[in-house]
User: Fold this.
Amino acid sequence: MNNNQISNPKVEVPTGMALNDKDYLDSLLSTLKQFVKNYAVILTEVSNETLYSEYKEMFDTYSSLQREVYEIMFRKGWYVLEKCDANKISNKYQTLNQEFMDLNG
Assistant:
């Protein structure tokens, strides 16, 4: 494993035409991500407070489910993260902070 990667041991799944656990979770994760995106748009556009509350509850539910599915996939080694060095983080922070200051300036 690359020293710049953060991952868990990969759980192997059967290959071939038949769907496997990873395929099902990939599909579920993609669907949940799309739900979260769509509900975020709805929340910015809904004008009725009752509807807003209902949609917000659904958004929170789907967002939590999306995170749970991602966590399962990460624990099974189906997602690999890359370590980021401190300089890169610091540079990005400075860039975003400057953009924020420019907006408020």
The chain is about 70% helix and 5% strand. The radius of gyration is 19 Å.
